[in-house]
Write a structure and sequence with these properties.
The protein is 55% helix and 9% strand. The protein is α/β, with parallel strands linked by helices. It has one domain. The strands form two sheets. It has a four-stranded parallel β-sheet with strand order 2-1-3-4, with helices on both faces. Helix 1 runs antiparallel to helix 2, helix 4 crosses helix 6 and helix 8 packs across helix 15. The longest helix has 30 residues. The termini are far apart.
Amino acid sequence: MKLIDTIKYRLTVDVAGRAFLRYERFLNARRLKNARFKSENLAPPLRISAWTKELISLHYFRGRYVEGHQPVAYVTSGGPVEILKALGYYVIYPENHAALAGARHAQMELIQSAEEFGFSQDICSYVRTDLGTALTGKTPVGKLPKPDLLLACTNICQTVLHWYRVLQKIFNVPLVVIDTPFVYTEAPPHAVEYVKKQLENELIPVAERVAGRTLKEKKFKEVVKYSKDATELWLEILNMGRHIPTPISIFDQFIHMAPIVEMRGDKVTVDFYYAMLKEVKERVKKGIGSVKNEKKRVLWDNLPVWYKLSRLAAELADRGVSMPISTYTYAWGELAPLIDIERGMESMARVYLYPILNRGTGHKLEVMRQMVKDFKLDGVILHSDRSCKPYSIGQVPQRNKLMEEFGIPALLLEADHNDERAFSEEQVASRIASFLEMMEVA
């Protein structure tokens, strides 16, 4: 790393940038006191929102100046980031960046740019958003740093393998692929050992060489502990949704999950979720629900529709419908018990074998069954995501099973997490209206 780049980074980010964003956080916190959503039936935003915005802004602001100061890695959302964090990498998750673009309605230009380069509309819209940025340099966050290392883990889908091979051609940097065998029931010992050896013999040597430093056991354990603490806190926050009325909705969770994905392994993430948990507990104590006059409680399955978050939240709130939990946000908390600080590398191998998308459809059905019971749910919306096929597979029988076993309505809602062209306003409005009517008479 270059001394001049480090000096520039320290002055620009650690001094000027942090001071400015802290002041922005102060102003945002004041604005939140009088903030209102699109519906008067939604509770005011969580106070922690000002800190969320600061964390996200600072993360991407760092990215503008990090080249030459720290090694940079692009990582799939299910990648073993703790190893890279312990080696001092600045980490970018292309999925998170794509989601942010979708939430800011900046994704379609990027998607169409990727398609103009020849990428099919049938490819995941996260991929097309990310490749649009990689190929044009355009981004709603100003600038993304070029990676020094690419890390793809196949535990979320096989698409990432081809996606990261394209990124490797664009940036001409090393690519490490961690292959995770599919888990149908329980991961056998040889599968855990197989992943562990990849981490030790493939990822670590390459990551050390690129970073120019050696992985230290003490630092690795520290990062794993931060990761475990933050994940446990996130899970506790989600479980607060069992209270009636629910103090936090999935729409809150979708926004505030950014740190648990992109900043996992950092101390500030632990501090952030401690503060968030405290605020959510305050809401429970005061009887404040995310939806005023909550009448019905609904589960959401699959990724969010990022470009329609506020509208969907408002439309459901106006009908007295709250959404206390989703399989997507829960996926970032359910693996907390598997993280073992003293058996770090084996623990990482096991954790990254068990994400919801690396397990059978029966597992997701069982998760939803338990959620219906624990969160006292009155219905289920399954987002049939056009471009996330691994998450959407099995939803028809899952829907049918839930309807049969619990006698509750379950809606299969066709859309896409980032491509607005797959979202039909009239069709979605009509199907949600019918679903809500069914819930009223159930």
